[in-house]
Amino acid sequence: MRRTAVRTLAAGLAVAATAAGIAATAVVRGGAPQTAAASSHREAPLISQDPTADNTDLYAFVSPDKPDTATIVSNWIPGEDPAAGPNYYTFSPTARYDIYIDKNGDGNPDITYQFRFQNQPSQFFLGNTQQTYTATKIVGKQSTVVGKGLLTPPDNIGPRSTPNYGALAAQGIHQLDDGTTVFAGQRDDAFFGDVGAIFDLVAIRNGTGANGGGRDFLAGYGVHAIALQIPKSMLDNGTNHTVGVWAATDRQKVSVGGKSHGPWVQVSRLGNPLINEVVIPTDMKDYWNSQPPSKDKQFEKYYENPILATVLQKLYPQFGPFKDTGRSDLVAVLGTGLQKPALNFTGPTFADELRLNLSIPPTPFDKLNRLGVLGGDLAGYPNGRRLEDDVVDISERAVGGTLIGHDLPLGDGVDANDVPNLHAFPYEPAPFSGFDNTKGVPFPTHP
Amino acid sequence: MRRRLFIAGTAAVTAAAVLGLGGAFRSSGAAAEPDALPAAVAAELQRGFAAGDTAAEVAGLQGELRLRPHDVKALSTLGLAYLQRVRETGDSSYYPKADGILHRALRLAPHDLVATAGLGQLALARHEFRDALALGVRARRISPTTAGVYGVIGDAEIELGRYRAAFAAFDRMAALKPSVASYARISYARELIGRTRAAQRAMELAASAAVGEREAYAWTRVQLGLLELTSGHPRAALRQVQVALDSFPGYAFALDALAQAHWALGHRAAAITAERAAVARVPLPQYVGFLGDLTRDPKQYRLVDVIERLLAANGVRNDLDIALFDVDHGRRLAHALVLARRGYAERPSVVGDDVLGWALARNGRCREALHYSRRALRLGTRDAVKVFHRGYVAACLGRRAEARDLYRRALALNPHFSVLWAPVARKGAAS
């Protein structure tokens, strides 16, 4: 839910935010204010967004340096300000974090990884942001703990609190019992995009947007990531070699009269990028977030008749016409995978998953094309998604009609992350530290 | 605690303005024109206004709307931003602004969820609970799967005294989307029905869901502190409040809770310092009133009157709040009873029951008071204030043994439930 990056910044709660930010709060998160002015003295914060249960981005790709494995990176907590201390970020110990893998295209998970985090004593007081966690793997009805007492690295606070951050973070890479490699902890947000402009009515700062000039709204901000590197042999179904991946977050239900809490309720999910922001209407966002991909047929009409195309037509008639109904091309790309050309089709079930064809070899780092399949690079989005894929440009062009003969070089003018991604697991770069906060304005020195 | 009633409805007063007002009051006396005063004061206070966190958003959105005056999303967002500004600053003149802008959004898009629910929020903040309920129901028709609409509905039902419906709405909200918002409401409902420990557990979940959001996190810690205070544990309250202040230094809600905890621990000077700091940031009438109780400074009480008038001028129905304050302080008792009856009609909840019963008792109408004071405790709320009021009614009816038991019960729940009335309870309990 990319909305998020902007809006947590905004939310009017903690950090100073931009107008675009708070606009995005309503635009994207839409829904009724999440926390009401409860009458009486219990008046809760007006806009609270539960960032620790907010899926921001999901990536799935064949590991370029270990092509016999696939890597899944799932991000949470949008817009972590490295300099927000003493309010450091952690995974929520009362949430459950899920990564789902569908091997047969029916929209149901065949392999699930679940993560629960625990705080250490004295959390927050001494800036202790290190957490332990448990990883559970579910295959069919069989649930197995595959990792226990695993440690996240601490957040990157600065050279005094967290010196040699690269080495510290490397200690956060662990092996699970099933042969999978795992990392959980703070990372730089690899997403890039001129989010401020996108939510300002898809404002394009420069031409059609293909010529740079955008502002990377996420530059300098962090996220919390869970990354998995899984042997392909555990994923490949042997026929179409394509897996569908999505991530979600659950919180426990409580009731006024209830004694304990539970069961788990899904409060956020993410398969393809930007769906919650751009495709799902405001009134449906909570519901969409609560549903599994196997029930996505009910949302198909929003993919078929995208609001964004209507908006583009209204704002940029000179670039039109933009087709905003009967978009079977988008339904295929986002809901079933592409059959023609054969890329990552998983069958007729419409389900919002990131579909990765494991048999397509990874493109070397120096050759990859940020436009992925649209740029002739079949190892990129919408075949899975790499950190380098420019999903804002790809999505704008796809909605604009690239696949149905209306090829327009739309874009937001931001083509890459502000810092280079790693060429090895967990690929997403180290977070900025609070100490070298890139957003602060230096105060002149004086004697 | 003293704040059973007062809402975070707020007024346009900053630190500087508070001082200025005190002066104005001394010279002009309390006989100022009721209608002229709020406007003049508001204008005066505007200037002393400290910029809060969403000031930039508000300015930005206003700029957007100059370019695109029919942008429904910008309109409804600005409406919400105005509501947030009240929270940050205490300036209730944002309420009419929010009202205007949200209605503009709704005229352009009659089925806009954000504008509809936003107007529901506004109605709640102004204690227009029947309107809030109607707006919540309208929002539910627009989107029955959006958790937030059940928050608006449930909050309104609570204040209308329809607890079964309110709790069902909260349960639905928490089932649709467990979050800070729904956990906090479940916590409040549990507190109302006397499940204090369970209320704390739900609020701990809310705190955990608020990590990463400074105000939301600090707010949940303050609520946990207040729950400790109402159960007579000021030291535990202090710890919660300190966590809130660590993560949000200068947070007005936390400073007020800090003052209460200090007072309960017998640190009167520290309590006064903390409450002054709270008032300097967000001058809610209950903060100013508590400061008056701590300092015994009648100037503070006059300031409460001014703030209440400002609130009323900005559309807040605060009859019940004013009634409680006046009855508590033994002022204008006959008039307070009129206000309490009027407030009760708008807010027939256990809060309304309690204030009306208290007002009746203090006017010597003890038989009638008994009915309401009993009703105020019908949910089983473990609230020392309500139990004390019930004891006062018993005493007033000449039932001395019953009164003594009730006073003892109130003090057992929370020996520091009120600066003014806890000593009365102690005397009565000892007799």
What would the keywords be for this entry?
heterodimer; A: 447 residues; alpha+beta; 5-stranded antiparallel sheet; 10 helices; globular; disordered N terminus; B: 431 residues; mainly alpha; Serine Threonine Protein Phosphatase 5, Tetratricopeptide repeat; 24 helices
Descriptive account of the structure:
The complex is a heterodimer of chains A (447) and B (431). In chain A, strand 1 (55-62) and strand 2 (69-80) form a beta hairpin. Residues 1-42 of chain A have low confidence and may be disordered. Chain A has one domain (50-253, 260-404). Chain A has 447 residues and is of the alpha+beta class. Chain A contains 10 helices and 12 strands. Chain A has helices at 3-10, 19-29, 165-170, 195-198, 275-279, 285-290, 300-304, 307-315, 328-336, 391-400; strands at residues 55-62, 69-80, 95-102, 111-119, 131-139, 142-151, 173-175, 181-188, 222-231, 242-252, 264-270, 354-357. The termini of chain A are far apart. Chain A is globular. Chain B is mostly helical. Mean pLDDT of chain B is 86; it is low at 1-52. Among the domains of chain B are: 51-90 and 92-159, Alpha Horseshoe (Serine Threonine Protein Phosphatase 5, Tetratricopeptide repeat); 178-282, Tetratricopeptide repeat domain (Serine Threonine Protein Phosphatase 5, Tetratricopeptide repeat), CATH 1.25.40. In chain B, helix 8 (147-159) packs antiparallel against helix 9, helix 18 (319-328) packs across helix 20 and helix 23 (400-413) crosses helix 24. The relative contact order of chain B is 0.10. Chain B has helices at residues 15-28, 36-47, 55-67, 72-89, 94-108, 113-125, 129-142, 147-159, 163-176, 180-192, 196-209, 214-230, 234-247, 252-264, 268-281, 285-295, 298-313, 319-328, 333-346, 350-362, 366-376, 384-396, 400-413, 422-430. In chain B, 75% of the residues lie in helices and 0% in strands.
